[in-house]
Amino acid sequence: MVSAPLAAVKSGAPAKERLRLWIRILRASRLIEAVLRERLKSRFDTTLPRFDVLSALDRAPEGMAMSDISRFLLVSNGNVTGIVERLVTDGMASRTKRDGDRRTSIIKLTPTGKEAFAAMAEAHERWIDELLGNLPEDEARALAGTLKTFESNWEGGV
Amino acid sequence: MVSAPLAAVKSGAPAKERLRLWIRILRASRLIEAVLRERLKSRFDTTLPRFDVLSALDRAPEGMAMSDISRFLLVSNGNVTGIVERLVTDGMASRTKRDGDRRTSIIKLTPTGKEAFAAMAEAHERWIDELLGNLPEDEARALAGTLKTFESNWEGGV
DNA sequence: CCTTAAAATTTCATACTTGAAATATCCTCT
DNA sequence: AGAGGATATTTCAAGTATGAAATTTTAAGG
After folding, report:
1. In angstroms, what CA-CA distances link B134 with A46, A150, B10, B87, B122?
2. Is residue B14 part of a domain?
3. Is residue A55 part of a domain?
4. In Å, how far is A139's CA from the nearest CA of chain B?
5. Which pLDDT score, from 0 to 100, does residue B13 have?
6. Domain for residue B5, yes or no?
7. Of A22, A31, A126, the CB nearest to B151
8. Which of A19, A28, B84, B111 is 20 to 30 A removed from A12 (C-alpha atoms)?
9. How many domains is chain B built from?
10. What per-residue confidence (pLDDT) applies to A6?
């Protein structure tokens, strides 16, 4: 402790307020995830992690490396290996080596996968629309903005 | 389809806006969870699920039934069995039968567990305070309010 | 009392998840 | 070219996580 008073720097909501907020964020996301998981299972016989990977791949028609997928979805490398493995087995995704670098494998959606995902994405959007249906537009926008700021402040490590 | 036009009822943000919001909520909670998990591991040699269960038990000095824990934490029954098992092994929690109903077991924190959790909770609150530190107070309050409304609208099933 | 339904929990198979260690490949510098 | 380090991925052990089936106990109705 050299010269600056430690506790007097921070501004904004007091600690208890922030803790409450975090608990609300956590509960909201768990509630929504539970609904999504159940519906993906019953209507498409798939899982949320698989949907997430398909969703990532759908944004990248040229394909993604394994590490791109894990970075994008905020999950570990080893995790992606297993999920992609099952997607390939199911004919939803394909892996090819990139010429010039045999370490990297490029994962793409197959036509089957693209088609299957399109149906899921359509339903998924409807479900979210339904689940968040009673949020007024201005609140939704404000909330998204706040979270976006938060996210960009923490992107790439604490 | 009898008489009401299906699409004209809902108000609020359009679907795309809601979808964006959901993705932000999801990413924010995953980012925060990743930090918490890593710190709980390195500083307390424990995991997030264990912390969650301890946290639930700490609110209930008289103890909780297994099903109370799973309902409170929004996780499945079978899941709680394993986590509590490990907590009991570690001396953090105890299980006793309730007289009058031998189906139910009551889980409580041991003194060791209570003490360990107090230290973790203190650190946890500091971490959240740090992670959400740049949220202005009014935004934090608004966000929490919005999420609270959302939650109570969906409590107890879709 | 006895059957049947309900409630609380555990068990089980399968899948997801992490973090660390192991592999394989590429790159750079001398 | 060869050593050493960096990158990309897989493997592995342990711990979550779900949903369904099985178990145990209680409660209710005839």
Report:
1. 38, 8, 34, 35, 20
2. no
3. yes
4. 7
5. 66
6. no
7. A31
8. A28
9. 1
10. 46
